Amino acid sequence: MFSSCRRKPNRPEDRQRGASVVEFAIILPLLLTMLLGVIDFGLFFSQNIGIQAAAREGARQGITQGDVIASITSAKGNLDSTKLQSKFVVDTTGGAPGKLVVCVRYPQSSASGFFAWMLNGYSETKYVMKMEGTATVTSGAKNWTGGTCAM
Question: For tag attachment on the chain, is the N or C end more exposed, with fewer CB atoms within 10 Å?
Answer without folding.
Answer: N
